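Q: Fold this one first, please.
A: Sequence and structure below.
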Amino acid sequence: MQLAIETNNLTKKFGHTVAVNNLNLEIEQGEIFGFLGPNGAGKSTTIRMLCGILEPTSGKGTVGGFDINSESEKVKEIIGYMSQNFGLYQDLTVNENLNFYARLYIADRKTCNKKIEAAIELLELGHYRKHLAANLSGGWRQRLALACAVVHDPQIIFLDEPTAGIDPVSRRVLWDFLYELAHDGTTLFVTTHYMEEAERCNRIGFIWQGDLVACSTPMGIKEGFLKDHIISLKCSDINQAYKILKSTGRVKDVNLYGDAIHIVVEDAAAITPYLQQQLAAADIEVVELKRINPSIEDVFVALSKGSGAV
């Protein structure tokens, strides 16, 4: 097993605030690793340390075999970085943006031009070569951002919410390209708030208030990190049912999921008769009331609220 990223008790403090606490990770080469957590949990701080931008308070880390403290400049040479607010130059064309980022890493102009052409072909940007970045739609702007991040053939790419704010079709297209990169051996470290994207990762880590509280495959996360039961309710008046369930002291949590309500309880079998009674008293017709397997989102919500974690 060849590790692309490894951390050992990696910690970052800002004054008395612990942003990242004793983080231990092992991410294999070619793996798509999803890093999830609510805003302020420590995701971006972790990425900044791994990219050699922010010095850890304590602990160790290597990226591509290079120490993030003593060899940070070498780390920067082998990584790519992309975020929702990737630093595209709005008054430059697609070609000009790519040329700028390629020249940061590649001295030989002939090689540089070949890499730019390869990135344009990979992200299908040929039609937009002479378009200003400012005039691109959100989806195409993110394609350009990804092209700039990969133009120098990095071994490892950090993607900080790369699909935030773009439409579902563009998100799917972008993920198709990410799969191609991973298939070719590129390691991807991805943060996202979209649970369907988390399902696409090989493994997922959940960070909460600086602590890594869960790390496994998507299936392992769903099966092993929620000790409570989830009940799915579909009924005639979902809004009224939600209000009733929120006001009762017999359930741990209640969340709306489309046309259903997910109810978090300690024992589904024991609580179901009580729920049926409460809904019937309010003249709410129950279409479905059954225990279901938790989704990634169920686990994410439970871990983020500090309940249900193993």
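Q: Good. Now the second chain.
A: Here it is, same layout.
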Amino acid sequence: MSATPLLELRGIDKSFGPVQVLRDVAFTAYPGEVTALVGDNGAGKSTLVKCISGIYPTDGGEFHFDGRPVSINSPRDAAALGIEVVYQDLALCDNLDIVQNMFLGREKRSGIVLDEPTMEQMAAETLAGLSVRTVKSLRQHVASLSGGQRQTVAIAKAVLWNSRLVILDEPTAALGVAQTAQVLELVRRLADNGLAVVLISHNMNDVFAVSDRVAALYLGQMVAQVKTTDITHAQVVELITAGRSGNLGLADPGSNGTGAAPADTTPGAAR
């Protein structure tokens, strides 16, 4: 594991009109590690990921990638750095086969025709590099694949392009027990291959099974980012629901009985 984060965010702010969704967010992701990004619905997880991937512009803050300051103004900028996102809907086309899906929009050509042999070889090498053995044929249509196999294809598609940071949005949300185990094994393998992995999940069992660090968002604030071995299941739940657990989280739990800082004293809060 590297001592230098691959991705480091400092003081990220993001508002939509009068609503401030992210407030002074700091976040790090390390190569060779899985960082679990957790938080309740509305905590700002999706907004943060869309800022990292260049879909949303930020209102303030700094991005550092591989130790140097960078600007991410579009998905193209993120992809050029090696940042890939696998969204919950997977963005796969059922009527296309595995190879066609993995190269969708980035097809290899030989003259004016598609270079099918090269694409098939690269797809096979990527899946082999991830030790994927559940796919029988690269020419299967995605419509014929199970949920776990679809997730595998989506992840393989993300790492095909020399990715360095892969963000996975709820990769096991709709999977059964056996398929969940396969996907979690693949997630762990990505980190073992040296990639930085950000795992968004509401499933605490998944978080503790594969993550090296846990980053907890609460009402748009990053209230803690700690090693998984230094925190308990109960503490993570408290950080998600109240923004504080023992000496972790918000400095002032507030006086309204909810564990949240009062709105009129929260730095940067919308009024």
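Q: Anything worth noting on the second one?
A: Residues 7-82+164-265 form a domain with the Rossmann fold fold (CATH 3.40.50.300).
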